[in-house]
Structure formats: structure tokens, C-alpha cells
Write a structure and sequence with these properties.
With 198 residues, this protein is of the alpha+beta class. The chain has two domains: 82 residues, Glutaredoxin, CATH 3.40.30.10; 88 residues, Gyrase A, domain 2. It contains six helices and eight strands; from the N terminus they run E-H-E-H-E-E-H-H-E-E-H-E-E-H. The strands form two sheets. Strands 2-1-3-4 form a four-stranded mixed beta sheet, with helices on one face. The chain has a four-stranded antiparallel beta sheet with strand order 5-6-8-7, with helices on one face. Helix 1 links the parallel strand 1 and strand 2. Helix 5 packs across helix 6. The longest helix is centred in the last third of the chain and has 18 residues. The protein starts with a strand and ends in a 6-residue tail after the last helix.
């Protein structure tokens, strides 16, 4: 079995980083872990702030904050079999403190591809998707489920409810643009539809 190269973005004294490293090793996957302290690089510190640990596999940031052995193994197995797993929905939205630039360029394009699900990036500023339903009652029920997820995540989208449709728009107001949390919220909203296509 081929060894998987993992980059673990960390910082000194990070107990969550040590737990993530132990979970990766307990996954049963043959790995080579390279640790990178984000505090030694101003660009990494700005990019990841309090998101550590960040686990990168094959040049892609796959997990943030935490990972367990089963999820790590499932991700690697899915990649090997050509069925990559979307890990965004398993992340937690992180409050934006400001002072970070909105997503742009390849980072924005990469997260858009990972999210999928017909979400549209509008003017590089916000995510938008319209969900369709056979009647008002089902659209309202979905709106309430979206509201519950948003409240749980502390990240609140604009929601337009109309007969048979719900339009969800999200961006991070503090920086007037998109952050990773917007993509995490969008993935969680998609998960509410149980893979139902609008």
C-alpha cells in the first residue's frame, strides 16, 4: 500500500494538533507526516489563524480543527477508489475576527470545486443556491432546518422563502467577502437535502 504524505499545520503547545497526529497514526493508513508551525511563517499565520490543526493531503487542505481515525481512513480510501469525500460538512464554522482577506484566486476556485452541489460564486463575493420544493410547506420546513444549522454554527445566511423555493445566500459580513466558513455552511445546508437535487 502506498504511503500517504500528510502535512500537519500546527503551532507550539497545540493539544488539538497532538490529538490529530495521534488519530492519523491510529487510522491504520501508512503515512509520512511533515509538521509545519504556522507561527514561523507570517503568510501561514494569516491564512490559518486559529484553524490549527489543518491536515493537508496531496496539496489539499482536507481537515481542520479535528479528525478521528475513521474519517481519516475513509477520506484516504475514497481518494484511492476515485470517490473523494467532501469534508466541508464535517467542519465547524469559525467566527471571523476580521483582518483577513476574503478568499480569491485558486483557493476560492478549489473550495468551489470541493463544495460542488450547484452553488454559485457571485462576483467573487458570496455563495448562492436556489432549492426547489413541490409546495410552500416543504420549502418552509427546509428554511427552518437551515435556520437551525445556521444558529448552531453561529454563521447566518440570507434566506429568501417563496412558494416552492428557497434561495440561500451567504458571505462573511465582517470582511465583506467569502471565507472558508461560508463553504462549510453551504456544505451543511446541502447535507440537509439528503442528496436531493433541487
Amino acid at each position: 500500500m502506498k504511503r500517504v504524505d500528510v502535512t500537519l499545520f500546527t503551532r507550539a503547545g497545540c493539544s488539538l494538533c497532538e490529538k490529530a497526529k495521534a488519530a492519523i497514526r491510529a487510522s491504520g493508513v501508512a503515512v509520512r507526516i511533515a509538521e509545519v508551525d504556522i507561527d514561523g511563517d507570517p503568510e501561514l499565520r494569516l491564512r490559518y489563524t486559529d484553524d490549527v490543526p489543518v491536515i493537508r493531503i496531496d496539496g489539499r487542505d482536507v481537515f481542520r480543527h479535528a479528525v478521528d481515525p475513521e474519517r481519516f481512513r475513509a477520506y484516504v480510501d475514497g481518494e484511492r477508489e476515485g470517490h473523494p469525500m467532501n469534508t466541508l460538512a464535517s467542519e465547524k464554522c469559525v467566527p471571523c475576527r476580521g483582518g483577513v482577506p476574503p478568499l480569491a484566486g485558486e483557493e476560492l476556485a478549489s473550495l468551489t470545486r470541493e463544495l460542488g452541489g450547484d452553488w454559485k460564486v457571485v462576483d467573487g463575493h458570496h455563495l448562492e443556491k436556489e432549492f426547489r420544493f413541490p409546495d410552500f410547506a416543504q420549502a418552509l420546513a427546509f428554511t427552518n432546518r437551515v435556520g437551525a444549522v445556521a444558529e448552531d454554527e453561529g454563521h447566518h445566511p440570507d434566506i429568501l422563502l417563496a412558494w416552492g423555493k428557497v434561495r440561500v445566500t451567504t458571505w462573511t459580513h465582517k470582511i465583506d467577502g467569502l471565507t472558508r466558513s461560508d463553504f462549510v455552511l453551504a456544505a451543511k445546508i446541502d447535507a440537509l437535502t439528503n442528496s436531493r437535487t433541487p
